[in-house]
Write a structure and sequence with these properties.
The protein is built from 2 helices and 3 strands. It has a domain of 44 residues. By secondary structure, the chain is an alpha+beta fold. It has a 3-stranded antiparallel β-sheet with strand order 1-3-2. The protein is elongated and about 75 Å long.
Length: 78
């Protein structure tokens, strides 16, 4: 009996992955930064992604109250 061959990961160019998701390439770069999708693999200087791995759109970046503008968040009546 022959051993099973290792199945290679399917990869598509970054532009094609953006088209599949209906987003721009820049949006995919932002999603990588936010942890929504896995980072691309670089092959010969080009970015490739896994089309079988769906975006995790249920992740929300934590709200940081220290970055609020006190002038805009003033709840006191004048």
């Amino acid at each position: 009996m022959r051993p099973k061959r290792k199945r290679f990961k399917r990869r598509v160019p970054w532009a094609k992955l953006a088209e599949i998701n209906g987003r721009s390439e820049r949006t995919l770069d932002r999603w990588v930064k936010l942890g929504i999708i896995d980072p691309p693999e670089y092959i010969c200087g080009r970015k490739f992604g896994d089309p079988d791995n769906p975006p995790r759109l249920d992740t929300n970046p934590p709200a940081n109250p220290q970055h609020r503008d006190p002038a805009r968040c003033n709840t006191e009546a004048a």
